[in-house]
Design a protein that fits this description.
The protein contains nine helices and no strands. The protein is mainly α. The two termini are 37 Å apart. InterPro entries: UCP010219.
């Protein structure tokens, strides 16, 4: 009798540490430049954009996709322009705040309509596309695990960023932007992975195997079976 291979962790499947770390560097550079130049938004914006350009050039030289680098650079430039336009240094973080509001709403809506985004992301990464929706156990597990992303990552960021932005705490925003990047992503992936595999039946073969033994409509949006 052959033993079943151990299930892959969600962290092994998703990865993504480098992107999260890279995203936290330009905001930290903005705060540093802003402080060193006597709270000059122009200097902070210039330092952030310069660091983003250097980081992007390094990533392209390392073989990363140019499109992803351009999108990251555009986000930094947009954040800098907003801060320069309003004259409020904390507004450099406004895009990040609003994007997390949008993400929380989008992830919650995806669960309600039974297209949990965690399943969509994992399905694309492992080449499964949307076949996982044919497996009620996977649909239920992805739905429950997606709530972890809604509350532990996006809602938490909205609360922290929102309160600091409202009170104009620029340095604290820079620190929070770093702490709530990769460290929070790592915790979210770990917790959602635990929820995911706890929800799957013990006999289920794992995320890469779809057991088409039911209909997606057999599960409620929150992952609970219908009664």
């Amino acid at each position: 009798m052959t033993s079943r291979p151990p299930r892959e962790s969600l962290a092994q499947i998703l990865g993504g540490r480098r992107g999260a770390i890279d995203a936290s560097i330009p905001p930290a550079a903005f705060v540093l430049g802003w402080l060193i130049a006597g709270q000059s938004i122009a200097w902070g914006a210039g330092v952030a954009i310069g660091v983003a350009v250097l980081l992007g050039a390094y990533r392209v030289a390392r073989g990363d996709k140019a499109r992803a680098v351009v999108v990251s650079l555009a986000a930094v430039i947009a954040a800098a322009l907003i801060a320069l336009h309003t004259g409020r240094a904390e507004d450099f973080f406004l895009i990040q705040l609003l994007s997390n509001v949008a993400s929380a709403l989008l992830w919650a809506a995806s669960i309600v309509v039974r297209w949990p985004l965690l399943g969509v992301v994992v399905g694309l990464v492992i080449g499964q596309k949307t076949r996982w929706r044919r497996d009620p156990a996977l649909l239920r597990a992805y739905s429950r695990a997606s709530w972890v992303w809604v509350f532990l990552q996006y809602t938490l960021r909205v609360v922290v960023y929102g309160s600091l932005w409202w009170s104009g705490q620029v340095v604290a925003l820079g620190i929070a932007r770093t702490v709530l990047s990769w460290p929070l992503v790592a915790v979210t992936v770990a917790v959602s992975g635990w929820v995911l595999y706890r929800t799957l039946p013990p006999e289920h073969p794992g995320l890469r195997v779809v057991e088409e033994n039911g209909d997606p409509s057999d599960s409620e949006p929150d992952g609970l079976p219908r009664t």
